[in-house]
Specification:
Layout (H helix, E strand, L loop, with lengths): L1 H33 L1 E7 L1 E17 L2 E5 L4 E6 L13 E2 L4 E5 L2 H48 L7 H48 L1 E3 L4 E6 L6 E2 L7 E6 L4 E9 L11 E6 L7 E8 L4 E3 L2 E11 L10 E18 H5 L39 E9 L2 E12 L3 E5 L8 E8 L25
Antiparallel strand pairs: 1-20, 2-11, 2-16, 3-10, 4-6, 4-9, 5-8, 6-7, 8-10, 11-15, 12-13, 12-16, 13-15, 14-15, 16-19, 17-18, 18-19
């Protein structure tokens, strides 16, 4: 009797526990799939354009900064090729007078230098005349000395007269050498005066500011009556662009993208002045002097563009896109498909030992490379397709991306195939999937409200 009672008690305990374990196993094995729905997107075939975006400024291809080499007051501006006063946008030729500086002081310096030169030349003439006198005295002293040597010290010529003749001769000869030196000094003074005159004349010529090249006045930085002071640095008066038919876009490219920029690369840019219109350009060179702003390193890339119609103006802001990769007719998947990774219970049982599954201990095959990833060897990843109410992996080779779509290569993927890009909670029948017991329930029966 007691044995039967114990059997009944064990049976009553064991059966509910067994049912509870079965329900728990079903909940753990299938709850994740039953409670979620997969969001999918189809594989598409199309064209992909991978670009790098950056901003820059339009600059003239070659700019000449015209300054003043002398100090003074601006008294007048010159005339451009059409006869109008030099101003912003004036077309000028090489040698065109741009401005004039008050030259009163410099003209006086020229006059002083000329007078000094005339005086120095007169000094040469005087030195040459003195030399001729000295040479005549040397001739006389030499004849006296020759007669003294012929007589010698005797009753006819005393020792004193003999010595005097000899001394006179030596002094006359030395004086001639002095006269020759004086002429050389006078000629040096002439050369110095000529140099001073050239300097004064050049400073006078600097009072007339001329254009060194053919071009267009981009900036005029002085007004009539303004005094310019030329000291260590020449003051800037005019900025001349040699040829506005050729412009450059100076684009600031982040250091993370600079490795994908190369000379000759195609560039498309837009400007706010012409919305909806794209202009073509080509990378000229990459400047090596990086700019660091708040720990952000950027490099300046020069983009060459044709401006034959003169529509683009200097210093416009340009939004540039560098073409890194262009693919036509390739398989494309959303980037979300490469980022999504399933939970262990969501993978079909036959594929749970795949290298990409968590149970295999090797996650992380998924990933999207940056635009134009240049690492050696293919970049491999995995995407997930539907297998009933679960998913299965498809290994792929990842190509370039445009930021939203990525090129893939795989023998198992076909156009139109649905790939998992995410998941969302599954709604229960007749009720919302997420409900709170504290939410008040309102009856739908009865008539209208009050």
């Amino acid at each position: 009797m007691r044995v039967n009672r114990r059997v009944k008690i064990c049976f009553l305990i064991f059966v509910p526990l067994t049912a509870l374990c079965i329900c728990a196993g079903r909940f753990l094995g299938q709850g994740e799939v039953d409670s979620t729905m997969f969001r999918t997107a189809p594989v598409k075939k199309g064209d992909l354009l991978s670009t790098i975006s950056a901003s820059g400024v339009l600059e003239p291809e070659e700019v000449v900064d015209v300054g003043a080499q002398v100090a003074g007051r601006i008294v007048a501006f010159g005339k451009d090729s059409s006869g109008r006063t030099i101003d912003y946008g004036s077309a000028v030729g090489e040698g065109t007078v741009l401005a004039r500086i008050d030259d009163a002081l410099y003209a006086a310096d020229v006059a002083t230098a000329k007078a000094q030169l005339d005086s120095s030349r007169t000094g040469v003439l005087r030195a040459e005349a003195d030399l001729r006198q000295l040479q005549a005295r040397l001739y006389q002293a030499e004849r006296d000395w020759n007669r003294a040597k012929a007589l010698g010290p005797s009753r006819a010529l005393s020792y004193a007269d003999y010595d005097a003749a000899r001394s006179a001769y030596e002094i006359a000869k030395a004086n001639v050498d002095v006269g020759i030196t004086a002429i050389a000094q006078a000629r040096d003074a002439v050369a110095q005066a000529e140099a001073s005159l050239r300097k004064a004349g050049q400073n006078l010529d600097y009072c007339t500011i001329r254009s060194p090249v053919d071009g267009v006045i981009v900036d005029r930085r002085v007004n009539i009556g303004q005094t310019v002071v030329a000291s260590l640095n020449a003051p800037s008066l005019f900025l001349i662009a040699k040829d506005l038919r050729r412009l450059q876009v100076w684009v600031s490219v982040n250091e993370a993208d600079i490795g994908q920029i190369r000379p000759g690369q195609q560039v498309v840019f837009t400007v706010d002045a012409f919305p909806g219109e794209a202009f073509q350009g080509e990378v000229g060179k990459i400047r090596l002097n990086a700019v660091v702003t708040q720990n952000v390193v950027t490099y300046t890339v020069e983009v060459m563009t044709d401006n034959a119609d003169a529509r683009l103006l200097p210093y416009m802001t340009a939004n540039a896109r560098f073409t890194v990769h262009q693919r036509n007719g390739v398989l494309l998947v959303p980037n979300a498909a490469l980022r999504w990774f399933p939970k262990p219970g969501q993978i079909a049982p036959d594929h749970r030992k795949h290298p990409a599954s968590p149970s295999a201990g090797q996650g992380g095959l998924t990933g999207i490379p940056s635009d134009g990833d240049s690492r050696k060897g293919p970049v491999r990843g995995v995407i997930w397709g539907l297998d009933g109410n679960r998913v299965k992996p498809f290994p792929v080779v990842i190509g370039p991306t445009d930021g939203s779509m990525t090129e893939i290569q795989s023998g198992e993927i076909r156009e139109g195939m649905l790939l998992v890009v995410g998941e969302q909670p599954r709604k229960a029948s007749g009720h919302q999937a997420t409900s709170s017991p504290f939410t008040p329930q309102f009856s739908t029966k009865g008539g209208g409200g009050h």
